[in-house]
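Write out this protein's structure.
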Amino acid sequence: MQQPSYWRRSGTLVLIALCLLLAGCSSALMDPKGVVGETQRSLILSSFGLMLIVVIPVIVMTIVFGWYYRRSNTMAEYLPDWAHSNWIEGIVWLVPVVIVAILGVITWKSSHDLDPHRALESDTPELEIQVVALDWKWLFIYPEQGIATVNEVAFPVDTPVRFRVSSGSVMNSFFIPRLGSQIYAMAGMDNDVYLEANEIGTYSGRSTNYSGAGFSGMIFDAHATSDEDFDAWVEEVRQSPQTLTYPEGYSQLAERSSFNPVEYFASVTPEFYERLVSSFRTGSDPETDTQDAPRAPAIDSNEAYQTTDNQASGEAEEGQPVSNEAGE
């Protein structure tokens, strides 16, 4: 009799210890500091609450039925020939169908509202930051300010930021959890995501797509600051003795390294980002690329999606089979 009691107490202590450990974990997704992140949290909580309408009654009824119809309860009615109930059938089908329908409407609407390529509504002009994923570091280019940084990005609070995202190597994923959506970074593709911080602070950013041995060191800090502090930060970067040129400086920066320290570049070659993205379309070597070399235009993600949809729609109207080249 003592052994079951021992295991019961041990199991209780282990469960309590696990709960305490989980209490120490942070959840960036559930503590957003941006407009997009707050909308995503609302979607998660709404979906979770709707699903609990099914989950909680099932758990409660399992416990109640098991207790009430236990062998020692002589008051429970025993019906060995019972097999069907229209009332129960209606409940177990109608409730889930209604919940799925509501979830479908919410998901459809939020999927369009949270489209990462959709510009955020704001009275403040948006700031463009170009992002390049390298092995294993992040390069941030500010075309309007003419500066660049490595593993550190800053922007004013309450200002929509358009991150144009590409890769100088393998596929990665750009993600600042407290601000919102992640977006894939692919060589030759000019992708974008709109984010906006509504609270001053420093937020951790990372890649969420495994890209090799140095993947764990592919992290950066995102600073949401006041307008004055952002201007001061830009001036600090401009005081750096380093400059970033294309292709010479880029070739050195692109060498593999992990857990890179923050670097500032006081100036950057004009159209650095566009030339890098286009180099993957033409197959040109960054070490021999020149400003006058012919380059194919970078593929914009929005234009690519629209073109594919239009082509598919046109071919379908003509009665021709839809090409699958875009999917390949």
